[in-house]
Amino acid sequence: MQISDITDYIEFPMPKTKREPGIHVSDLIQFAQLKEDKKRCAFDRMPEDTKKIFRAKFANGLLFETALSHSLATWFEPVRPKPIQVDGIWCSPDGIIKNFTFMKRTFSPVVVFESKYSMKKAAFNEKSFHWWIVQIKAYCFAVNSTIGILASLHPMGDYLNHIYHIAGKKHTIYPNTKFKTWLLEFTEKEIYENWNLLLELKEQYKKEKERDLNIKKLICWLNSFIIRKTRFRKNSFLPEQLTKKNNV
User: Fold this and answer.
1) β strands within 72-177, DSSP E
2) Strand partners, 173
3) Alpha carbon 80 to its chain's center
4) 87 is a domain residue
5) Has residue 215 been placed in a domain?
6) Which pLDDT tens digit goes with each residue over 78-94?
């Protein structure tokens, strides 16, 4: 038997999902994260090696989302809606659940369902999960709901080693994958304040994009100007050539 590791030769494709043209909630969140952390880098500006790692992560997330939608279909029954545009911002929830019942409580008319695959610690942390919560609140605003469900898969679990004693022997179990599901209940005030935050981000995002576009136009003009100047110099006569031509 011959075994070859071909992992490094596999090109993970980006998820092929139809994306409506315009500004999306995810665009605004990435924009805010880049402003928060100057060390972060937008995907299109990453080196190819880094892009490859992120493609693998996206592929894992897409695989998890697909598997989750099938495995939990009998209980949650999430249905992926068409993208919804509100105030010029596109919202694309992973799913919405109609008349969700839990612990003898019925949440109607709809509940927002969002799934995540992350290396974050598998413990709810409002700071660590901040932008996930912002995203879910935005989708709640779009579908007129105050309830969300966050389902997340954490490959590193709680990042702790668990030690067990079996028959007098110590056994160490290293961090293992954990799946967590949280029911999030928001107030209407929280939903509206969150949406106003996104509207402010949208205006900043548009100004930033307009500035970047103007810079690109300026760079293109300068490049074309330099090329024209270079061509002119190549085609023009040098003084020696001009003297020879006159003598002839």
Assistant:
1) 84-86, 89-91, 95-102, 105-117, 147-154, 162-166, 169-173
2) 162
3) 17
4) yes
5) no
6) 888 899 999 999 999 98
- CB-based contact 134:29 (threshold 8 Å): yes
| Distance from C-alpha of 88 to C-alpha of 80, rounded to nearest angstrom | 20
What is the domain count for the chain? Answer: 1
Q: Which domain holds residue 180?
A: 10-201
Q: With respect to residue 59, please indicate whether it lies within any of the assigned structural domains.
A: yes
Local structure of 117: helix, strand or coil: strand
Report which secondary-structure segment, H or E, holds 184: strand 178-185
In sequence order, the 6+-apart residues with CB closer than 8 A to the CB of 54 are 43, 46
Token code pair at residue 212:
């970047």
- Residues shown for the chain: 248
**Tens-place pLDDT, residues 175-231:** 677 888 888 999 999 999 999 999 999 999 988 888 766 676 667 766 775 666 666
* CA geometry: angle 125, 129, 132, nearest 5 deg: 150
**Pair 31, 94: CB distance under 8 Å:** no
Cβ neighbours, 10 Å, residue 73: 12
Q: What would the pLDDT profile of 105-159 be if each residue is shown by its tens digit?
A: 777 788 999 988 887 877 787 788 899 999 999 999 999 999 999 888 887 777 7
The percent of the chain in helix, strand and coil, each rounded to the nearest 5, is 45, 25, 30
* Cα–Cα–Cα angle for 221, 223, 228, rounded to 5 degrees: 95
Q: What is the pTM of this model?
A: 0.72
